[in-house]
Amino acid sequence: MVRPGSPETLTILRGIFRGCKRESFDILIFDYHGEVTGWREVARGSSSHVEISLPDLFSTAVLCGAKALVVAHNHPGDDPTPSREDIILTERLATAGELVGCPILDHIIIADSCHYSFRRSW
């Protein structure tokens, strides 16, 4: 059983982002029981940046039956430090998730050998 914040969540995300040379923004979809039911890539960018659309992200989540999400993106290389844009985006995602009834449980940035979890700072 994979639950938010579990080591299995990181294992899934590391598998998704393994070998990615460009930034990708993905969602892990959780059901009412807090278990992962799937994942989707919602945007792909360059080696240093990815743009996402909140309407596209949440419409994908709703179409997949998500009751909650863990959002994640990768930083190719070994520095998962969030940028100012990452911080602002996380705040916008959290607000939007509450408004549409699909809370954001965490935003995780995956780097080659480490990660950053916004959940730890909430």
Description:
The structure is a single chain. By secondary structure, the protein is of the alpha+beta class. It has one domain (7-38, 50-63, 76-115). Helix content is 31%, strand content 27%. The protein has three helices and five strands, in the order αββαβαββ. It has helices at residues 7-17, 54-63, 84-100, and strands at residues 24-30, 36-44, 68-74, 104-110, 115-117. It has a five-stranded mixed beta sheet with strand order 2-1-3-4-5, with helices on both faces. It is globular, with a radius of gyration of 13 Å. The two termini are 24 Å apart. The model has no long low-confidence stretch (mean pLDDT 93).
- Domains (count): 1
Question: Spans of 5+ residues with little confidence (pLDDT < 50)?
Answer: none
Give the spatial strand order of the biggest sheet.
Answer: 2-1-3-4-5
Estimate what percentage of residues fall within beta strands. Answer: 25-35%
Tally of alpha and pi helices: 3
Mean model confidence by pLDDT: 93
Alpha-carbon Rg, integer? 13 Å
Distance between the termini: 24 Å
SSE succession: HEEHEHEE
Number of separate strands: 5
Percentage of residues in helical conformation: 25-40%
- What oligomeric state best describes the polypeptide chains here? single chain
